[in-house]
Specification:
This protein has 695 residues and is of the alpha+beta class. It contains 13 helices and 38 strands.
């Protein structure tokens, strides 16, 4: 469908400070109003179905040397635009995405300086995106932003799902409190990681999920983060107003820009139904189209690998430990397993020299990303993997030394090309080099984008760990398959773990920005396999681990557990083998943040449907309508469910597999144990004799 546009340009009177401009969503349910205060402060507010959910909130900046760029503005002119298009993603939850919105661009002029600032609003039926534009102008060319003064004045004590504001990590588990109770003073209580730079006790990260007033669900985040620092939100508890707090650089400034320039989009999703936020494609729509002309080499995939065994103590990354995991013989085991069961790749961590001295030393030259340990025959393993029809997945841990990685990227990617590797997992554990920079600062944001662009030149896909949280850039760079940027499954291996509600919150927070490499599929849930004294455990049932392959969308999924643990439960492992990683259609059916998520998805190019359902620490039952199936078509249902006596603490590995025939007019009853889940495979039946046999 070609885009439909309608443009109307109107000039406003210079002398009217209070001139207000409005723009509504295509349905008319969402309305944004923009004006200036008597002091010339740009302001905006928003209503949803008549309910004011963003009170008048300030816009603007403070530039270097206390240069106020948030007052003494008048509205010089404005223009409006109606837009409607449908586009096809390279991969994703759906095979096409509609992008329709009404746009308002407000041109502001500062009376005291004559400088101009535009604010561009796009209003969708499910939310708002707005960003700043700095036009090219003689009195504003090169400039430094010290503070962005964007506000989100909520005016109500919402319930919030939040993690502490931190410039260097988002690997926290979520607190669920009212806004008035937000307090990150004890950041240690949210995580066990040692690298933390909390912004302030009342600062939180985005995506921020809010529920409460008038039955509304609100999510605040950003889109298209490119040449700018990531945004934290600093709360004023007296007015329930968040103000943007940008990640500073090594000398305390936030952003260095040159006109013409734009900021990332500030996004506000809103609905009176939680599932609407999960179905939203607003953040993707605010990103630029793909910059990769030929994307045929980009392929969603599943992998296994040498990874979990290092977390649970079976082996180690470094050779000096005496139990090096990434040996030639051990890697061949994983290649054989991947080939036998139809997996695309084998991730190998700890293959390269440097792991004895990699963490915490702030050293720039630990890894060169091409030199293997003596017991890892890279050439032989490359040939062996080719013979078996799988690829090795390269691992590049930078230990935070981004400058060193940029120096070695071309050489490392040429080696990958030579070895027929098309997927790299990057890592940024530790303090960042350039020294004093932060993981979420402008310099590192530009670095992550440089990696995506450079990798694309070599036809390499990227799975980034410890990066800034995603903002929909996988539309622009579809070789950006997934990233971590949150507290993943690995924390269950060596810490207090992730509480059962964690996987019901992430779809409303971290996953709003893009796919996550969560590494599901753990079957041995009590982690005493190699240390009988260990009390660590995965805080889910086995069936919840299966359901995560559906509820957590990602075009890159890992069967993360050990080979022997899958060999012990081949019937449950079958679901991991069968479930797709790319989809034609996705429907979030039921959801409540922190409680449960139920989603149905149709595999790419097939009529096969899959349902995933997960719950928190409470057992739940759901009646799921199958009205998304073709009328009159019989289907074989295969349900992987928690056993009747399953429980995430007491009996986590108990499961039952049931099969039967059903039609679209029927409903499906799903029962989930405490901390549990359910995974369903729905296959159309074309053989009528098979139907009779099943019945």
């Amino acid at each position: 469908m070609k885009p439909f546009l309608f443009l109307l340009l109107t000039t406003c009177l210079l002398s009217l400070f209070g001139t207000a401009q409005k723009v509504s969503s295509p349905s008319g349910n969402l309305v944004v109003t923009v004006d200036v205060s008597p002091k010339g402060e740009p302001m905006y507010s928003a209503t949803y179905k008549g309910h004011l959910f963003i009170n008048r909130s300030k816009l603007g900046f403070r530039l270097k040397n206390q240069d106020v760029f948030s007052e003494q503005f008048i509205i010089r002119q404005f223009d409006t635009l109606m837009y409607d298009e449908t586009w096809k993603p390279v991969w994703g939850e759906v095979n096409q995405i509609r992008n329709t919105y009404h746009q308002l661009r407000v041109v502001l002029e500062q009376q005291t300086t004559g400088r101009r600032l535009n604010v561009l609003f796009r209003v969708f039926d499910d939310g708002i995106g707005f960003r700043y534009e700095f036009p090219e102008q003689p009195n504003l060319r090169h400039f430094i932003i010290d503070e962005e003064r964007t506000q989100f004045h909520l005016g109500h004590n919402y319930k919030a799902f939040w993690i502490p504001g931190d410039y260097d990590t988002n690997e926290y588990y979520y607190a669920t409190t009212t806004l008035s109770e937000i307090d990150a003073t004890n950041a240690e209580s949210f995580s066990e990681i040692s690298l933390k730079t909390p912004v302030a006790p009342h600062a939180v990260q985005t995506p921020l999920m809010l529920t409460g007033s008038k039955g509304l669900y609100i999510n605040i985040h950003e889109a298209a983060l490119v040449n700018y620092p990531a945004m934290q939100l600093l709360l004023d508890k007296k007015t329930y107003t968040f103000q943007t707090k940008l990640t500073p650089d090594a000398v305390g400034h936030a952003a260095f820009l040159q006109t013409p320039a734009v900021t990332p989009w500030r996004t506000i999703l809103v609905s009176d139904r939680a599932v609407d936020l999960l179905n939203s494609k607003l953040i993707l729509n605010l990103n630029e189209p793909s910059k990769i002309p030929d994307s045929t080499w980009i392929r969603p995939q599943k992998m296994v690998g040498l990874w979990w065994e290092m977390h649970v103590g079976k082996s180690s990354w470094d050779k000096a430990s005496g139990k090096h995991g990434a040996t030639t013989a051990n890697t061949k085991r994983y290649i054989d397993f991947a080939s036998e069961h139809g997996f695309d790749g084998v991730l190998v961590e700890g293959w390269n020299r440097g792991w004895e001295d990699w963490y915490g030393n702030w050293k720039e030259d630990v890894f060169d990303f091409v030199t293997p340990y003596p017991d890892y025959d890279l050439d032989a393993l490359h040939r062996y993997a080719q013979q078996k029809g799988v690829r090795l997945v390269m691992h590049h841990e930078t230990s935070g030394a981004a400058t060193n990685y940029e120096f070695h990227m071309d050489t490392a990617y040429r080696l990958m090309q030579k070895m027929n590797m098309n997927l790299v997992k990057t890592g940024y554990v530790g303090r960042v080099i350039p020294r004093g920079e932060h993981h979420d600062g402008q310099w590192m944001v530009k670095h992550y984008n440089r990696v995506l662009e450079k990798a694309a030149r070599y036809q390499i896909m990227v799975d980034a760990h410890e990066p800034v949280r995603p903002t929909g850039l996988h539309r622009t760079w579809p070789n950006f398959l997934a990233c971590e940027a949150a507290r993943g499954n690995e924390f269950n291996a060596w810490s207090v773990g992730n509480p059962p509600e964690h996987e019901t919150i992430l779809p409303f927070t971290r996953l709003i920005g893009g796919p996550m490499d969560y590494t599901p599929g753990i079957f041995r849930l009590k982690l005493d396999q190699f240390d009988p004294a260990s009390v660590n455990r995965v805080h889910t049932t086995l069936c919840k681990q299966l359901a995560l392959y559906v509820t957590f969308h990602s075009p890159l999924q890992m069967a993360a557990d050990l080979i022997e643990n899958y060999d012990a439960k081949p019937d449950a492992f079958q679901f991991i083998k069968d479930v797709p990683v790319d989809w034609d259609e996705s429907r979030y059916l039921m959801a409540e943040p922190g409680d449960y998520v139920v989603v149905a998805r149709k595999g790419k190019g097939t009529d096969h449907w899959y349902i995933g359902a997960v719950t928190d620490e409470n057992a739940r039952s759901f009646k799921v309508s199958l009205d998304f199936l073709k009328p009159g078509q019989p289907y074989l249902i295969k349900i992987y469910r928690d056993a009747d006596d399953a429980h995430w603490q007491d009996n986590p590995e108990a499961y039952t597999i049931e099969s039967f025939v059903i039609h679209s007019r029927r409903s499906l009853n799903l029962r989930l144990a405490a901390g549990g889940g359910c995974a369903v495979q729905i296959t159309p039946i074309v053989n009528r004799k098979k139907i009779a046999k099943e019945e």
